[in-house]
Design a protein that fits this description.
Blueprint lengths: L2 H24 L3 H21 L10 H28 L6 H5 L8 E7 L8 H16 L6 E7 L8 H6 L4 E4 L13 H20 L3 E6 L2 E3 L3 H12 L3 H4 L4 E2 L14 H26 L6 H18 L1 H5 L10 E4 L7 E5 H12 L9 H11 L5 E4 L3 E3 L16
Parallel strand pairs: 1-2, 1-4, 2-3, 6-9
Antiparallel strand pairs: 4-8, 5-10, 6-8, 7-9
Amino acid sequence: MSSGGHTLYPAAMLLRGLRLYGKWCRFSSPITQLLTLTVVTFGVLAPLICHRLLHSYFYLRHWHLNPMSQEFLKQNQEDGQTALRYFEDLRTPNSSEISGDKALRPWLLITIITVQRRNEFHYVLQVASRFHRLLQQCGPHCRSHQVFLCNVEQDPGSHQDARLLGNFFAMVSRYKNWEDPDAAVNQFEKEKRDYAFCLEQSLLAYSPEYVLLVEDDAVPEEEIFPVLQHLLLARLSKPHLKDALYLKLYHPERLQRYINPEPMRILEWLGLGMFLGPLLSFLYSWVSGRPSLTWPIVLFFALYSMALAELVGRHYLLELRRLAPVLYNVVPVTECCTPAMLFSAPSARRVLGYLQELHCRRGFAKDTALYSLLRTKGERAYVVEPNLVRHVGMFSSLRPNDSPKLL
């Protein structure tokens, strides 16, 4: 058979299947048909297709979690070695190229906060090499962007990856030769103070319009700069978004489901059902040869599509928004996690003042502290969907774990 015949064969089989389904529909009741569709979808097809999707309810954790975690760690280690070779092969710039022209105020300063941990993964090198490559590819649109490294290791000289990056980027270190001004505070308060130090130094060193504060295990997505440019120039310039305290670029995928405390997601979920319910009902009526839609059929397909979207995983629906910057969503922020946070210069100064008033501890880390400001200070903050960075670090500096898992 010709290649054209091979191309048409699946389409012909699909049409034949629809005709057979249509004939069956004409000789069976709608209740039987819809019950059969539900059983086949949720009992057979979805489990077969989605059992390896990490953020799906159909994910077979006891089968796949350990091997997938090991595979992720192996790939992460290979990525770290690739990042190390990237900088070893890169031409070392002169001092003026490293520091940039501070007389020219950067539009966006990318500050990478780093601390020494698990040398074999080279987390900070992965982050810095990706930003460096993306800035080179971005060209003239990113000339006003600058990368700044903030080393908060207590013995800064022992952080070999930071020392290597010091040959390519401007860098500041908080501690000098094991000097520890925070010896009497807990680890969570120290992390907050490190964070505030890096934010403050970003403002003092460059006086940028925006500061993107990135932790050293948050690797940027390929489309981060076009999306940020669209968001900052078009979306966040609107009055109700302009004075936001911060914009989060990451929220854990496991917390992105519809069934969550955030009311906006419930509205989005209902909207999905209202859109797909009539659409699938029309398709069902066309295939089954029924003359008109009825509200019980529309209601069934609305609930069917909502259940399918939740069980397969909202995270995978959000990935469709990566097709274009205008499709990215900006919604009210949720509490967890600070791998990548965007501040305008005025909001960064407000945050520094607020953080001085707060004391962090176990159960009240810096992400919770920042989120609490929305209630206590009447501020607003937002999160971008889908994520603009990938959190690749499985080894936490706050919660040591020798056998980390993806979930």
